[in-house]
Amino acid sequence: MAKKSKSDAVVEAAPQPIEPVTESVTAEPPAKAARKSKKPKADASLTLEDLAAKYRQHLEAAGKSNGTLFSYKLELVTALDEIGRETKLADLTPTRVLEYFNFVRVMKTRTGVAKARPTFLKTQRVLRLALQWAQDSGLIESAPLPEQAATY
After folding, report:
1. Domains by residue range for the chain, with CATH
2. pLDDT of residue 54
3. What is the DSSP string of 99-150?
4. Alpha-carbon distance 58 to 45, whole Å?
5. What is the CA radius of gyration of the chain?
6. 8-state DSSP, 89
7. Highest mean pLDDT among 2-16, 24-38, 60-74
């Protein structure tokens, strides 16, 4: 093996000074930025049935599987039957949603046996997700979720 000499050593280049950035960043005035990010105005006439249809279309467009679409449809039908198809989302309150979460049909099977925890949590979750999606999409101003009304 040959010995390495000092001349064979890698000589590091001297660090180069960092040049200051001379580009200026211009921000839009807050009023203009706020106008661009506005959500569409909430529709006061939107019913729970309308929401269910729009949410299912959203899930389908998002590429959810047929099993997920079918399962969510069944859970939404439960909400439509128990809360009311023609219930206006503007009239839906967190208290009413909480009542739905505790309905017998949500918590028990047809034979009266208590449903397994994952089962009733899924039923609750599907409505919660649909309401949250409606808020995020600008269909409603605020999702009437029980956890938002809690006064801990």
Report:
1. 48-146 (1.10.150)
2. 97
3. HHHT-HHHHB-TTSPBPPHHHHHHHHHHHHHHHHHHHHHTSSSS---HHHH-
4. 20
5. 28
6. G
7. 60-74
